[in-house]
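FAQ: What does a multi-protein file look like?

Like this. Sequence, then tokens, then the next protein.
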Amino acid sequence: MPDLVFSHSHEEEVTYFADLILPLPIPNLFTYRVPRTMVEVIKIGARVIVPFGKKDGRVLTAIVARLHNTPPPRYQARYILELLDDYPLITSYQLELFRWMADYYMCCIGEVMNVALPSGLKISSQSKVQYNPDFDYPELLSPEEVTLLEELKKHPALTYEELGRLVGELNVPTVIKALVGKRAVIVFEEVREKYVPKMIRKVRLGAAYEDREALLDLIRKLDKSPKQQEVVMRYLRHVPVLLNSALNSRGLDKTVLNQDDEISQSSMTTLIKNGIFETFEVIQPRFSDNLAPTVEIRLTEAQQQASEAIMAKFNTQNIVLLHGITGSGKTEVYINLIQQALESGSQVLYLLPEIALTTQIVVRLQRVFGDKMGIYHSKFSDNERVEVWKGVVSGQYQFVVGVRSAVFLPFDNLGLIIVDEEHETSYKQHDPAPRYHARDVAMMLAQWQQAKVLLGSATPSLESYYQAQQGRYGLVELFQRFGDATLPQITLVDTKVEKKQKTMKNEFTSALLTALGDNLERKEQSILFQNRRGYSPYMQCEDCDWTAECPNCDVSLTYHMKVGELRCHYCGYKEEVPRTCPVCGSTKVKTIGFGTEKLEDQLQILFPEARILRMDLDTTRAKNAYQQIIEEFEQGNVDMLVGTQMITKGLDFDKVSLVGIFDADRIIHFPEFRATERAFQMLTQVSGRAGRRGGRQGRVLIQTSNPQQLILQKIITNDYRGLYDEEIRERQDFNYPPFSRLIKLTVRHPEQHISKQAAERLAAELTDTLGSSRVLGPEQPLVERIRNQFLYDILIKIERGPVNMKAVKEFIRDRINDVLTDKGLRQVSIVVDVDCL
């Protein structure tokens, strides 16, 4: 999209306007006037600051989407306040992507912008107060107002919080409001960009002492001040100015000298005051800029053949699916393809499903690509993400590895996008809008930039494998494990039999306990998988059957023993663990079921000598928690790792020879049409963590109460094709994806009868046109109330083929607006989830 270049004659003054994307859930762009001073410099894709709404001082960061000279017909355009960028930070491809996502995912373009831009690129504003120098009526003031005004006179401007600290117990907002009414003070918004470069303070010799003779003369003069002389000598040891005076301009990080206990801080202060040293600041990149590649990747024969097959498929197809079993070395194939793309001058995006997986792979990639690679995910600070964003714009990063939000980065020359573990549900965003799937967005991005897409998985999604079978995607298969490794031996352990024989200890069968003990003796590592965090799913009274429930959601509270709390995993509500039953007063309140925390606790009792770690959402909240846990396990400092599905995603450990799986039946029998596919994927992926290096074959023990289940037999034989053939027939019979598109509408309201009324009306209006075979519901979901909102779901199934989906979505939007504009239903909210999972 070319930039609009303004030109105008001196005879005729032309007013210019900009259509802006505002980070708000509003359907339309807003038009603002371009100040004369900006006309020559403003560009499409740049950020600007604009006033918005009736509230004085409210400002927003907006993106310029269009430049023109047509005033808006229905309102008086306000002026843009400030231009933030000399060059566009948002590319024409990104603007096209924003528009497509808003249309496809049935949301507002402002919602896309809000999710796409790291918050460090958005502007924050803070109210400040200053004394009005024109005010001259002190007799109008109360004592409290006089006190506050006197403080204000001492400062150019203060925030409400700063004033509060200075005037003590005064009600600052009330007093300021009164002073504003009397025109004694001025309240304004100080606008600042959230992104702050990381600065380091450095020190260097004054320019006069860069000369050799002057420096030697200084050292002699400081004989009378030995402490100051020692500071200078220490500096010279780090910065050999006598050998090369040019080194002095770089200076030395001040903390290097400050950390030296022998250095007198007062001496340093005196040297700076006397001009012998000078201090200065420089911007320090948050990512190391001196990482050099240290590893060269060599492919095995099977990997080389797979890489060549992918390149051959790319000659005729833009999307290729790499179906490679766990441990087959898909990452090495990716690296080879990334190197080829970078050598051709193209950009590369490597998507991973979540941060747990990035930790290990990022280290491997850095050894190959050094500082050419950027890393982008939500655990990074705002400032770190902004630096990667700007690094892509400037060309510093040609290759970025990141999670789903990395699809929004400002690429303009993509050659290759890799979507690793493409089947993973983590690629789908659930809240807030846009509720996008990064895999699908990546394909659209690639289409606009004529890039190739490689999807990789040991257990591909049925939709992707179907497209490959239909010839729409290329298909390359890699069924040989790296090195001498073989697939693990999978054994089913019948928990019903062991319970009858009373050989189970807590949640552990005797077979699993024996295997864990043997592994511990051999100094090999074990992974234990339970897809439920916390100590216990719920607490119950044995006498009256009372169960601890969330007051905001229709779910039981989960017991977390380490912190002594009951928590809701939906809304975050917490409460203390009751000592007695709050209903009948009984002391017989017990935990029911088990989560990762309970398994960790029981393991420590059963194997007191074992070193045990847990990896779930509770233990990985801190920024570097994933990395610390994985490093500890990699280095052999941990014998057993207990975790949720985080541990299923591509982690690669040499010494893991045993995987234990709990509660497999709950995963298999989840009430959802993808349950069988998901169970196969999850259990196969976690099984694949065992025996990934040559030598001893890995073992997997799956605890189940029904070993005869067909899905478990397919997991044992790694029969993905058998699973696919059965599932695809069933999907076709019941018109589920890939044979249809799904749109879920969730109606929410604090009053159940209003929520139900709105849902029934919406469903009826949709059914009148689309038909009852396409509109299912409304039905209450498994969890009927979340955050005090009652929920009703309507599922729309539209068959693939000649149906005009754009028209269908427009029709759905209109029907939603009909409901939301009804006076009695205005407080209802309706969430639209396109391609719901």
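And here is the next protein:
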Amino acid sequence: MTRQVSRTTALRRLGFTDAGLAADRLDDDALAPYAARAAAAGAPLDEALGRTADPDLALLTLLRLAEAAGGSGSGDGALLSRVLAEKEPRRRLLAVLGLSTALGNDLVARPEGVADLLDENGTGSVLDRPADEVRTEALRAVGADPGADVPVADGDGGGGDGVAALRRSYRRRLLQIAAADLTSADPLGDFPRVAAAIADAVAAALDAALAVARASLPGGGREVRLAVVGMGKTGGHELNYISDVDVVYVAEPAEGADEDEAMRTGTALAAALARHVSDVGPEPALWPLDANLRPEGKDGPLVRTLASHLAYYERWAKGWEFQALLKARPVAGDRALGRAYGEAIAPMIFHAVEKERFVEDSQAMRRRVEAHIPLAEADRQLKLGAGGLRDVEFTVQLLQLVHGRADPSIRSRTTLEGLAQLAAGGYVGRDDAALLDHHYRFLRVLEHRIQLHRMRRTHLVPTGQDDLRRLARSVGVEGVSGASSLTERLRQVRREVRHLHEEIFYRPLLPLTARLSTDDVSLAPEAARARLAAIGYHDPSGALNHIAALTEGISRASNIQRQLLPVMLGWFAQGPVPDAGLLAFRKLSEDIGGTPWYLKLLRDSGETAHRLARLLSTSRYVADALGRLPEAVAWLDDEEELAPRTAEGLASELAALQARRTEPFEKALAGRYLRRRGLLRAAIGEVLGLGGPTRSATIITRGADCALQGALAVAVTEATERYGLDQPPSRYLVVAMGRLGGEEMGYASDADVLFVHDPLPGADEETATRVATEVASLVRSLLGRAATEPPLEVDADLRPEGRNGPMTRTLASYAEYYDRWVEPWERQALLRARPVAGDAALADEFRAIIDPLRYPADGLPGSTVRDLRRIKARVETERMPRGVAPNRHVKLGPGGLSDVEWTVQLLQLRHAGEVPELRTTGTLDALDALHEAGIVPVDDAHQLSEAWLLASRIRDAIVLGSGRATGRRADVLPHEPADLEVVSRLLGYEPGHRLDLEEQWLRTARRARAVAEDLFYE
């Protein structure tokens, strides 16, 4: 009893689910002699069975096979005994019996078939046998001469015996392939060899079936040349164990034969061929032979001439038919005719993408296939479901069709070879390709194991626990949780496949590339030069040089550039300066093209590539800024990265950056770096039309605030140390003025500021003043000093007494000066005073001093109003640059920024004492408040705000287009057509409509001037 318990326990550990029954079967008299022979060879049968996918199934089928073979002294019994005694044949036999009930039943019906698993039959190298050798064996099985031009089965082979012989020959070959597959040490690695071996066996069976069909016709039907062209997985040399075999027939009359008669004979041969492999008979059918991929499908003739095929594909074929032809390969019959068919069809395949909506239709077809999967099968469908085999296959095929026109190196018919070629050519990322390759192999091996069980054409993962356990063990996933582990692994594989499929198959560049002509895609010099000139490049030869520099060579970067440029050249041409855009793209690519993310991002994200092309061909400012901060290209794929940063977020980032630095100048550069990022973020948004009209001003101002805050913190520490003090002797404050104070900065704006300090109790005032002066000087130096970060010029000329006054004053000094000496223009300037850096309490105290001056309770006396009007008139006449038409100067000209701002500020000075809503530093906010308070009529407020916004946008556009933030022309609406075109495009005008901008500005400024004269000068 103890011995029996220990034996059943051991059998259970080996994987038998019913250990008691297994013990009884192992002791069965029919199996005993074979078990003894195996044990004598040093391989106990129970242990060998325990290494199979389903030990119970293997044992049961082996017992049945032993019974069918008779005693070990019989012929079949001796064969079985020999197989079980030899290590590798035994492994092959038991592996087959432990997974495939169908192949096991075949062996039980014909025990002599175990001889096919012996090494002397070549099973050790069965996966590497040449296709010609396999064909020869199949033809000889039906009595045909493999060396004949037209093999015909012999007299006996031409009837039912021939059909039976070809089917038995095929099944022997399939048994050998399955045995080699199931005992492979690396099933995923060997999968392509297995699939190719099955495809070769199918092709050989088709040749043998055709030979049998010819034997039934007078003269062997030699009046017709018939080629069988494999399609789908047959043509791709990657067949399943059980699959529809897709074929197309091509026929030509033999020399001297009548074409009509040849077509009738060809049709008869094709029909007979299908019957011989697919119809019910004494021997089971092999697989369905499907000719529905032929022209016109089921409604078309079964057999066509080559000319008829070509005529159909030239005139009537749909996009999906060319996708199917991608795998077309002659597999049987007249090989010369099959090759001629392939050579004639090949050029059509890779031009099919030029058909309207080819890519979109292919993508839609994939979605339709998924939509028709029954809901109950969606998660079990290995082939058609999301994350299944079709996702990989369609992805590879679409990329091959789109890019294969210009690149013959990516035209393999086989999925995995095609994927490897696409990776080598840079069409798919290496890591993505490796993951797809692994997962595709895994899914196909699972599919094979599922099909082998009953030799049925299925792609559904089983649901029963016993079936899942057997499937898991067959792919090396063992243990009590094998079924659940396999299910989880499959779920992960499908998630990752689906993600990559959606990322690549729906890649935005694909439809755009497909619409280009072959010449455009190939970038051939002459065709490219003509296209470049036609779409707007001023220097096609120079552009060709840039293209050559980007695409020459065999590097991965060059390959990806060859994919990108045909589409991006068109996008550059949509901008006002395509030549400059291409040049900037070349420089950027040369700088960062070797990084792993840059070209991959452009290839996989059409939005990013399109945005980059638009930026580079529109704005030299952005092109230069990206050259200094190339990692910002990644922002174009992420809306969050392009969103404005909050003041609080910038402060936190500044603190973190400064904490990691030790040198004072490096700490100051942290704030300048954040400002540089802000400038670029604002510029990108403005060129791309993101956000509202004040978005850029807000971002630029926050960046300047951040830079000032960083510089002040550094300057205080540095100045204190220079004077040998333990702590600062004063509180410090930087007050923003002008456009900085109004949060209305542009790309060319300086930072107008006031420096304030307040000595601490007990501090020596003279020392405190010297330290404060050093602080102000350091702030200006740290922000204006040459460095990798763009400078921010700090201008303190709006301080009391202007340039003649001290750089910084104490709070008390400001209070005294403003109480005794304040000028009208200083009151006006203080309207924009906004503390931006330093001590918060000191900021409140400073505001308490200036608020009565800028928001006077009793309004302005008439003398002050007259003074402001005189100053405004003098500014208009004295500061206008010579040689500039006043009506084109958007700052000082009539209706320009100056008119609007002086008008608004005068009204603020007169009414802010009684209208709190007017106490704002922003021009547009003040205008809104003036309108809401009934001080400015709605139409007048609209005219002023429209002129102010348009002038501000023109100023920014001039800088963005030219890349120059300084110069006497920075505030002048350009005269030159090319310059005006750039500015107009940046402001959203259609190409060629630059004069509309000119007319709009002159009209808007004229109306604003009339309002200003009415409100300011009365």
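Q: Is there any per-entry metadata?
A: Some entries carry free-text notes. For the entry above: The mean pLDDT is 92.
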